[in-house]
TrEMBL record:
Keywords in alphabetical order: Membrane, Transmembrane, Transmembrane helix
Cited InterPro entries: Cell_Proc_Reg/RNA_Proc (IPR050923), FHA_dom (IPR000253), SMAD_FHA_dom_sf (IPR008984)
FHA domain boundaries: 70-119
Native source organism of the sequence: Alkaliphilus serpentinus
Protein name, per record: FHA domain-containing protein
Keyword Transmembrane among UniProt keywords: yes
Keyword Glycoprotein annotated: no
PANTHER family in UniProt: NUCLEAR INHIBITOR OF PROTEIN PHOSPHATASE-1
Any Pfam family: FHA
Residues annotated as transmembrane: 12-32
Length: 145
């Protein structure tokens, strides 16, 4: 009886080790894939997903290109639609004005965060700013020539 239990525990331990190695290889693959996708991008400013939980109840892309005026929310009329239950139907708006991008919260219930601070008014975005909403966070990327 002891020998059967010992073998069972060994096999479970080996399976856990292989699962751990698989998880690490998968993360490396996803990082390399994101880097390759970044290389194919144009020079337009974009939002990059920075904190992805292991499992989300909705689909979210790694990158979102920004237009002159981009709305983000749960509703179908937005340029970027994300079905997170903590995001309002019209949550935020990013606009281009005189070569600069500005972030505006559209009266969302749970608020919009810029670098971990709730925004109350329209704020200017800088390269590397973190935009938080719902369960996700984006990095604003505007590459400088």
């Amino acid at each position: 009886m002891y020998q059967i239990l010992s073998w069972t525990i060994r096999y479970i331990f080996i399976v856990l080790i292989y699962y751990f190695i698989y998880s690490i290889i998968r993360l490396i693959y996803l990082d390399i894939q994101a880097i390759n996708n970044k290389g194919k991008r144009n020079d337009n400013p974009y939002l990059k997903l920075v904190n992805r939980k292991d499992r989300l109840d909705f689909h979210v892309q790694e990158f979102y290109d920004l237009n002159d005026s981009t709305t983000l929310g749960r509703g179908k009329g937005n340029d970027i639609q994300i079905d997170d239950k903590y995001i309002s139907s019209k949550h935020l708006k990013i606009t281009l004005d005189e070569g600069e991008y500005f972030l505006e919260d559209l009266g969302s219930v749970n608020g919009t965060y810029l670098n971990s601070t709730v925004i109350e008014d329209v704020v200017k975005l800088r390269n590397g700013d973190r935009i938080g909403l719902g369960q996700i966070e984006f990095l604003f990327v505007k590459e400088v020539d």
